[in-house]
Amino acid sequence: MPKFPVARSRADRAVPAGRVGYDLTASRLLLHTFQTEDAFEELLSTGQLLPDPDLAEPLFADAYAWMFREMDRRLPTSGDGALWFWARTTREYLVDSCRRNRGDVLLTCRIPRERMLLSHHWDWHCALSGIPHVLELPGESDDDYEARRDRIWDEVEDRKGAAGVLGKGFRDWPEDVRRDLERSWEQFLDPSTYGRWDTVQATAHALYAEDVVSAVRLDPR
Asked: How many CB atoms lie within 10 A of CB 37?
């Protein structure tokens, strides 16, 4: 029997009312993740859940490979692939996610901070799109930021064009272009750059039963 409560709920009633209570500075982070019923059964039967790297979207293989390398470099743990969590989002988004994950299991967890790699949810899309992440400077206007960002993006395209790799995948780009791009992505792994209301995700090499606070099986309808 699990040492945490397991409930069943309609998707629109699975998240308790009120403030969620995320705190990115806590020693044990409050996290949420949606897992399939099969994955949940694996957690219950073995006491742990490990990621399946084959589930990563092939179209974004380079971005995921970079994230996995950063996890290996920055975390005291190791493993193949990553489990994904919400480290800060709105209650409304969680409820909407429950609706989109009917039939799955919503897990509320508290995991030691050192086992988690935080990343800015929206800025992660720079890695998925293979474009530089450009951090907004203090006091910079929207127009100035967009102009500077566009110059940086255009510069990367010019370097790719000079190398004859326009339209080719990330792995075919010159090493110096890939290196500069990945360095720009490291900025969205730094929580000190996040705004107060920014949505934050987190990745880990494993989830253990003792990390779970509660589980809610979401009705399939």
From this structure: 13
